[in-house]
Amino acid sequence: MAQILLHGNLHVTIYEVDKIGDGGGRGFFQKIVGNIGEKVGIGNGISKLYATIDLEKARVGRTRILENEAANPRWYESFHIYCAHLASNVIFTVKDVNPIGATLVGRAYIPVEEILDGEEIDRWIEILDENKNPIHAGSKIHVKLQYFDITKDHNLGRGIRGSKYPGVPYTFFSQRQGCRVSLYQDAHIPDNFIPKIPLASGEYYEPHRCWEDVFDSITNAKHLIYITGWSVYTEISLVRDSRRPKPGGDITLGDLLKKKASEGVRVLMLVWDDRTSVGLLKKGWTDGHT
């Protein structure tokens, strides 16, 4: 099936699965691993089920994990997905978390062609195995989705025009004035390394020290600290140059954030799913889609 570019907003709700296996949390989820024939998964009566939304190989949404609800897992979770993906299907995958990673329960498919007209789709879809055959007991998943093409966005191409621009919807922070972006050449620059870089204004670029500026921003924060990154190592010190000491600069990033939180500053962190930063997870088995 040909892939079609989805460029716009995809609104999806995953409701529930009508039944899985024989409804008792056994049978289907027993899995034989290794040569010793050990049974794992929820064949022991414990289920940990979650569902995902995929645009081909791109995972764009995932529900919470439901424990011990194998007979009729009900998530009732909604997602607003900004997409620019080539796909032939919107794929709903149901998995079970177990000691070796995650076991595939099955996948349900809605062809992309069916959502292009922007009409809302609300239906039960058959769950299929890896060979696209119906899984045991004919299980189905109830989903709702609607696609809004980017060309239908009334804000497209308007830019920011004063207070009438609503900003990007479904985001944590609303649009604000007075924001700025600081560009850095390196995390730290020695005093004798200041190249002459002319700017369009006729002035010269003045490099700053990233870690020191981050320290100053956190130290001076009065209301909110929001940190994002691939991984955040809280044991580092931001002030490291002995020739440029700062009051309070002898503590780690983690202690600095705890100090600000104790002062009443709201501290928020968004860390990407970086398994390599967690030693225990390096030893585990994964299927690449957990």
From TrEMBL:
User: Matching Pfam families, A to Z?
Assistant: C2
What keywords are assigned to this protein? Lipid metabolism, Repeat
Tell me which PROSITE patterns the record gives. C2
Domain C2 spans what residues?
1-125
Any one cellular-component term (Gene Ontology): plasma membrane
Please list the GO terms describing molecular function. Answer: phospholipase D activity
Highest taxon in the source lineage = Eukaryota
Any one GO biological process: phospholipid catabolic process
Keyword hit for S-adenosyl-L-methionine: no
From the Swiss-Prot or TrEMBL record, give the protein name: PHOSPHOLIPASE D
Source species of the chain: Salix purpurea (Purple osier willow)
